Amino acid sequence: MAERCVVVGAGGISNAWFGPLKTEGVDVAAVVDLRVESAQAQIDKYELSAEAMSDLEGALAKHQPDFVVDLTVPEAHCRVTTTALRAGCHVVGEKPMAASMDEARTMVAASEESGKLYMVSQSRRWDSKHERVRRTVASGQIGEVTTICCDFFLGCHFGGFRDEMDSPLVLDMAIHHFDLCRFMTGADPVAVYALEFNPKGSWYRGDVAASCIFEMSNGVVFTYRGSWCAEGCHTSWNGDWRIVGDAGTLLYDHDQDPVGQRVADMANPGFHRPLADIDVDDSSVARGGMHGGLYEMLTFLRTGAVPQTECHDNIKSLAMVFGATESARRRERVVIGI
After folding, report:
1. What confidence tens digit (pLDDT) does each residue in 239-249 have?
2. Are strands 67-70 and 275-277 parallel, antiparallel or unpaired?
3. Does 128-284+319-335 carry CATH code 3.30.360.10?
4. Given strand 189-197, what is the order of strands in its sheet?
5. Which tens digit of pLDDT belongs to each residue from 286-312?
């Protein structure tokens, strides 16, 4: 029997979810939105036999879904997710997990108390090249990781709400890069020193650029430099990465295949030791982006295998975001608490 879900939120991001839901044969019982006409429009667009509703509690009581897909704005994530968990539903939700660490902790507690799983869809984890980076690092070819660097520079003229945010880059985008750092290396955050600023000539009201130095587990240092107000010579949306180990280095730039070099002879006394190319993993991801997150939820429902972005893990990526904004505000090093 097909799994049944209720989708909450019929905005633009829902277009990335309804296709995979249909592909996987999920029974979408209801689409809930504050604007019922928006819910109905998506039901019609994707030819779903779902009910358009505006009452979340009513939808859960009537349709008793196996899981809920939370596609609401970040400020609504806590209410929607805790309501669904307490109604006995598992939840997969869009990033970021919550609009504050207090809300995130409330959501984790609701998952524990209800005995239901809550996972966050960090879509960039389900990408073949990111998986290759992760597996290559895990193979030990570059040795123990010591240093991670990510550059992210784009000139983005969004218009709308991002232009008015206090911290558009860190709050709206950097969560992807912070989570990728953890995913690709296995390192977790310990502390951060960050500077947010608004460059000369910026068309944003808030601080749209940032430089962050994260102290990670096992003595690893992660340096992040980014801006949404950088015209010319753009990086990839995924960022340009350098991962340094005590025996070699791996590069991942402009969405090209990762490449790297390792020391070929550790005993060589020369000024530069001889190097050899790294054998980069060639794995592929069958279901990318949001589809990958959905499939991990379905796999959990079918087998009990816990998704990699289950809330107890994903809150660590969110903590990097709020640790960075707190450090920038206080102009001092901040210990990252979960």
Report:
1. 999 999 999 99
2. unpaired
3. yes
4. 275-277, 259-263, 248-252, 240-245, 145-153, 221-227, 209-216, 189-197, 334-335
5. 999 999 999 999 999 999 999 999 999
